[in-house]
């Protein structure tokens, strides 16, 4: 079984070798700002028996630093792309390079440097209590007990989970489970965080907390990749917008430019439409 927190990682409490690297202030250790993180070359995922092309001919580069928002309607291929970037699935065609090396040969580095927050928060639960769950990732990094306890306390506070620290994670609400997953990643201090539908099930304060975390990650030079159809919640934080539709990459560029080129057929709503009054507060077309 894989550790659901880290790409292809072990689920056991076994320690994983981890050396802390030093970096200039404002820059994450282990990654040069703007260095190519991922190169995705002609990537396709085809499912038998009918040969359904869930992803088709995807080409993209993801650089270190900044926030990329990958948007697309239901079934457009966002989660599949995340699973491929995480090394949890193999492509049918094409290849993914991580720091210039084939992803399959970089799994150790991927485990240390990339944190995942899945759409299904339940699937990420690994601890008997909320605090143990958050501690799991840092423990796997081989950190001291004191360091792990400090990181857990900080993450509990950052996500408003202090009062739930001894709860069974499975008893948390859907939104709280998502916060727990985010808290676990923050505690691991991954260089890159990939979040699949990070706002699903979250109430307004939960969304705001998540956005604050994303902003803080960005400001400390981490790389954030958000896969979501909820552009209206996060686009201001993104430097780049990628649109997927039916498994094909339809557009990729600066958010404002991409929105100006949006094709309604892609099923992504331009979040710049505003509400003048109650009568506008609906996503139904006039
Ligand atoms: N194991 C599988 N076998 C066959 N088809 C699959 C498999 N996994 C995913 N698909 C198909 O691939 C397409 C893309 O799925 P994916 O989960 O990536 O969509 P998504 O963009 O994340 O959608 P959502 O917004 O609903 O989360 C869907 O049509 C899905 O049915
Ligand atoms: Mg999805």
Structure description:
- This protein is globular.
- Helix 4 (145-158) packs across helix 5.
- It has a domain at 65-86 and 108-265: Rossmann fold (3-Layer(aba) Sandwich), CATH 3.40.50.
- Helices cover 28% and strands 24% of the residues.
- By secondary structure, it is of the alpha/beta class.
- The protein has a 6-stranded mixed β-sheet with strand order 8-9-10-5-11-12, with helices on both faces. Strands 4-3-6-7 form a 4-stranded antiparallel β-sheet, covered by helices on one side. Strands 1-2 form a two-stranded antiparallel sheet.
- The N and C termini lie far apart (50 Å).
- The chain is built from 8 helices and 12 strands.
- Bound molecules: adenosine-5'-triphosphate and magnesium ion.
- The site of adenosine-5'-triphosphate has 13 residues, from strand 4 and helix 1.
Structural class: alpha/beta
Number of helices: 8
Give every kind of bound small molecule, once each. Answer: adenosine-5'-triphosphate, magnesium ion
Kindly report how far apart the N and C termini lie. 50 Å
Rounded average pLDDT: 86
Rg, rounded, reads 19 Å
List the helices and strands in order.
EEEEEHEEHEHHHEHEHEEH
Q: What is the CATH homology-level superfamily of the domain at 65-86 and 108-265?
A: P-loop containing nucleotide triphosphate hydrolases
CATH class of the domain at 65-86 and 108-265: Alpha Beta
The CATH architecture of the domain at 65-86 and 108-265 comes to 3-Layer(aba) Sandwich
Helix fraction? 25-40%
Overall form: globular
Poorly predicted residue ranges: 8-31
What is the spatial order of strands in the main beta sheet? 8-9-10-5-11-12
**CATH topology term of the domain at 65-86 and 108-265:** Rossmann fold
Note the beta-strand portion: 15-25%
Tell me about the largest β-sheet: 6 strands, mixed
List how many beta strands DSSP finds: 12
């Amino acid at each position: 079984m894989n550790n659901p927190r880290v790409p292809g990682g072990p689920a056991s409490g076994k320690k994983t070798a981890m050396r802390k690297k030093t970096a200039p202030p404002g820059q994450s250790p282990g990654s040069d700002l703007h260095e190519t993180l991922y190169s995705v070359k002609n990537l396709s995922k085809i499912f038998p028996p009918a040969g359904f092309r869930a992803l088709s001919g995807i080409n993209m580069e993801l650089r270190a630093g900044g926030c990329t928002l990958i948007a697309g309607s239901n079934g457009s291929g966002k989660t599949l792309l995340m699973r491929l970037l995480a090394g949890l699935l193999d492509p049918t065609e094409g290849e993914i390079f991580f720091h210039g090396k084939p992803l399959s040969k970089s799994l150790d580095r991927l485990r240390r440097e990339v944190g995942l927050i899945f759409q299904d928060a339940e699937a990420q639960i690994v601890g008997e209590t909320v605090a143990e769950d958050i501690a799991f990732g840092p423990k796997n990094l081989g950190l001291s007990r004191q360091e792990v306890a400090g990181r857990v306390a900080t993450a509990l506070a950052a996500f408003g989970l202090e009062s739930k620290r001894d709860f069974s994670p499975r008893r948390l609400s859907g939104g709280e489970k998502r916060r727990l997953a985010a808290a676990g990643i923050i505690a691991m201090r991954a260089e890159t965080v990939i979040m699949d539908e990070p706002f699903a099930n979250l109430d307004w304060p939960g969304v705001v907390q998540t956005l604050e975390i994303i902003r803080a990650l960005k400001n400390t030079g981490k790389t954030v990749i958000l896969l979501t159809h909820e552009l209206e919640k996060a686009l201001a934080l993104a430097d780049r917008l990628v649109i997927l539709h039916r498994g094909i990459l339809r557009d990729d560029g600066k958010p404002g430019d991409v929105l100006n080129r949006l094709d309604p057929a892609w099923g992504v709503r331009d979040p710049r439409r505003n509400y003048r009054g109650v009568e506008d507060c609906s996503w139904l077309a006039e």
